[in-house]
Amino acid sequence: MSEFRQNISTGEWVIVAPERTKRPADYCRERQKTQVPAHSESCPFCPGNEHKCKEPVYEVKSDGKWTLRVVPNIFAAVNRQSPPVRAKDGLYLSAGGYGEAEVIIEAPSHNADIAFMPVEQVQDVIRAYRCRFNELSEDPNIAIVNIFKNYGPTAGASLVHPHSQIIATMVSPPHITEQIFYARRAFNTWGRCVYCDMIKEELAVRKRLVMESEHFIAFCPFASKYPYEMRIMPRKHSAIFGTITPEEESDFAFILQSVLRKLSLLLDYPDYNYYIRSVPNSDGLVQYYHWHLAITPRLVQAAGFELGTRIYINPSLPETCAAELREI
Amino acid sequence: MSEFRQNISTGEWVIVAPERTKRPADYCRERQKTQVPAHSESCPFCPGNEHKCKEPVYEVKSDGKWTLRVVPNIFAAVNRQSPPVRAKDGLYLSAGGYGEAEVIIEAPSHNADIAFMPVEQVQDVIRAYRCRFNELSEDPNIAIVNIFKNYGPTAGASLVHPHSQIIATMVSPPHITEQIFYARRAFNTWGRCVYCDMIKEELAVRKRLVMESEHFIAFCPFASKYPYEMRIMPRKHSAIFGTITPEEESDFAFILQSVLRKLSLLLDYPDYNYYIRSVPNSDGLVQYYHWHLAITPRLVQAAGFELGTRIYINPSLPETCAAELREI
């Protein structure tokens, strides 16, 4: 029997249709397994090709060589030369494409993978996220700083070299505004952060838990849209990712790498996206929102029903996915 | 220069990034052009294989043979055996998978294409949409009837045989509820349907118009999320698709087929989805919503930024797309 499930933090419904349930192997694609080399002459992110990128805005070095770099995106969808102003265009509203787009080159090695690189390197990635997040947030014309990763071609990655991205924009995503509106309503009703409630529930029932660390928990959401979807949430309440402490950073690197490794091993290196959700700068340290990271494996294709209704049909039970991820 | 554009009917923003603009040919995929036969032994929708489907709930016949059939979906994500009740699941809310899933087999011919079949056949398709929409809407446990089409594998179609789908659900999609909330707020502010305003604006400025017919207009929305995205809207205000008259039905078939043909010829038969938006049954003939059909070609891949923010980066100017579609 399939069932509808509601996302308690957004009000969105999904259909969990276990009649269609697949085993992990059913999701593993037939792929040409090409050996990725450790260095590529044509890759703009590889050492020796630094001139193909803009000047770095952040760099980590060891023995005189860089081990991580953050560079402005050459193919930026937004930039700070665009005017940060809104204007009427007939009936409609438009705004200059003001913002900043940056690429975090996570390692010099062309074939490194965040799921398997030394955990210290992942810590450097998280620290770069935090530093760039906080610096970009200081621009009063930036409404929100979005940090995300595209892994694999069906997740939108055009380059193999391990990297994540930042796009800071002058407008807040209405979806996040709605989510915050919904969270505030829950707070006004129950007097508690709905995400704190969720953490408590997941730690109590445990069936959707993937793993826990000192400062974080990772679980498959009750109303997962996608098979093997996961959330990593800090146990400590904070609305803003940029408040993460160095100690929490190390722990976050550990749990993020651990669950990505589980995902890669269980599903034979599936394409995935992850993104960090944090309040827009207009909101500050509100009590009703809770920053988190969402991981969405790209195993199924959204079709007309999902585009039209935004109700997703998930062929896998989140409880089953969590159990499989726990055990690997 | 890129710009943000706001969807006036939802408040959603998109980034139109014409630095990335592509010509139609850039979107045409390298494909193995396999000749699709007019009949396939293994296709459950082909004549002779009727036993592979459930009993039809609607049928059009000519000379004793069927020319269109609507059958319950064998792989239904929802069904009317599930209980139409909501229940608490710990902290969360779930509901029985109550609903109905049907497939409209648009023609007996395995290789027919809605963009190129005789227009009378498309009229039969639209009439089937209307009849099934109205019949399913009579079930008091159905909140909304969703009609959509998946064309091609990247649009989620698993079968080649020309077909569309209906999924009627016991819950209303929160996205549509939000859209209606937004439209009502605009109505309360301006005293007019925001979609009627949009039709008036598009007919006045004409630069995003693709074509117009007696009862409908087709245009590329100002805040298009996708390249070559289109809307077909009835000139006459109505919140409910099921109110379409036989005369409007013929005209709707004509304009739908015309724009799908333009899309197919301009972009070499791209995969696409279309879906009909109409108010949930709880709302009735409200003055602030306006039913319409949306066409979303699947030419670009949503990545982490889109999943995280739901702000889409559109590499094509809607005005350029409309001009190209007009001219073909």
**The CATH topology of the largest domain in chain A:** HIT family, subunit A
Q: Using only CA atoms, what is the Rg of chain A?
A: 20 Å
This entry's quaternary arrangement is: homodimer
Q: Tell me about the biggest sheet of chain A?
A: 10 strands, antiparallel
Biggest sheet, spatial arrangement of strands of chain A: 3-4-7-9-8-13-14-12-11-10
Low-confidence segments of chain A, given as residue ranges, are none
CATH architecture of the largest domain in chain A: 2-Layer Sandwich
Would you kindly provide a written description of the structure presented here, covering whatever features stand out?
The structure is a homodimer of 328-residue chains. In chain A, a hairpin with a 3-residue loop joins strand 10 and strand 11. With 328 residues, chain A is an alpha+beta fold. The relative contact order of chain A is 0.16. Chain A is globular and about 55 Å long. Chain A contains seven helices and 15 strands. The longest helix of chain A has 21 residues, at 246-266. Chain A has two domains: 36-171, HIT-like (HIT family, subunit A), CATH 3.30.428; 173-328, 2-Layer Sandwich (HIT family, subunit A), CATH 3.30.428.10. In chain A, the strands form three sheets. Chain A has a ten-stranded antiparallel beta sheet, with helices on both faces. A three-stranded mixed beta sheet of chain A has the order 1-2-15. In chain A, strands 5-6 form a two-stranded antiparallel ribbon. At the A-B interface, strand 1, strand 6, strand 8, strand 9 and helix 3 of A face strand 1, strand 6, strand 8, strand 9 and helix 3 of B.
